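Figure 3 (text version): C-alpha cells given as input.
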C-alpha cells in the first residue's frame, strides 16, 4: 500500500495534509489489512478516516472469528465516507486484506481506480464505482 499527494494550491506554509498522517489518509497492519484515502485532505484528516476503517476491519475480523467472511470488504469504507460527506467532504478509498481481498468506494462523482489480481491477470480500470459492474 502506498500513498502520495498532489498537494493543495494556496495552502499555508507548513500545512501537513492527510497523506503523511497514519490513521488519516492511510494505514496498514499485517494482521488486519490496509487502506488508502484520496480526496479532500482536511476533511479526511479531521475525521481520521483510515483509523475508522481499520477499526471496522478489526471488528469484522472479530465477528468472523477466523472464517473467510471478508467478501464485500468495501462495506467497511461506507461509514467513513458518510462521516466525511456529513462535514462537506469528498473522498474515495481502496482497502486490502491480508488474504488478498480488496474493495473500493467513493462519495465523489468520480474516483479513478486501476488494479490487477493474480487470479485474472488483466487490468481493471474504472472512473467510478458504478462502472465496475459493466
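Below: residues designed for each position.
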Amino acid at each position: 500500500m502506498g500513498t502520495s499527494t498532489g498537494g493543495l494550491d494556496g495552502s499555508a506554509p507548513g500545512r501537513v495534509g492527510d497523506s503523511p498522517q497514519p490513521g488519516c489518509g492511510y494505514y496498514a497492519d499485517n494482521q488486519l489489512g490496509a487502506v488508502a484515502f484520496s480526496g479532500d485532505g482536511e476533511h479526511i484528516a479531521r475525521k481520521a478516516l483510515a483509523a475508522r476503517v481499520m477499526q471496522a476491519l478489526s471488528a469484522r475480523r472479530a465477528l468472523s472469528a477466523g472464517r473467510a467472511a471478508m467478501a464485500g470488504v468495501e462495506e467497511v469504507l461506507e461509514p467513513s465516507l458518510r462521516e466525511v460527506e456529513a462535514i462537506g467532504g469528498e473522498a474515495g478509498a481502496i482497502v486490502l486484506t491480508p488474504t488478498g481481498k480488496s474493495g473500493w468506494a467513493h462519495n465523489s462523482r468520480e474516483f479513478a481506480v486501476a488494479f490487477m489480481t493474480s487470479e485474472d491477470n488483466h487490468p481493471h480500470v474504472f472512473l467510478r464505482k458504478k462502472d465496475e459492474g459493466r
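The radius of gyration is 15 Å.
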